[in-house]
Design a protein that fits this description.
Number of helices: 3
Shape: elongated
Radius of gyration: 18 Å
Structural class: mainly alpha
Length: 85
């Protein structure tokens, strides 16, 4: 097996899904922290709206998707980035 080949036992789908879910969890926790500590008066703004549950869901989903992509991309770069050096 060459230096740049992926081992046959590597499960790419499991790797991506696991890291994406971990990133989504980090994103939801980050959004919860923003709202819990009322950073930038975000919680106050959301609660003043008539559709507060929708606003909470949108913030959570946006942060989950952002952090999921970031976490998965960084894990790929860390895992496969320095194979030649």
């Amino acid at each position: 097996m060459g230096e740049h080949e992926v081992p046959k036992t590597f499960n790419g789908s499991r790797f991506m899904i696991t890291n994406w879910l971990l990133g989504a969890l980090v994103g939801v926790l980050f959004a919860a922290g923003l709202l819990a500590f009322d950073i930038g008066r975000l919680r106050t703004l959301v609660l003043a709206d008539g559709d507060a549950p929708v606003a909470f869901a949108l913030i959570g989903v946006a942060m989950a998707l952002t952090f999921a992509g970031l976490y998965a991309a960084v894990s790929i770069m860390i895992t496969f980035g320095r194979r030649g050096s």
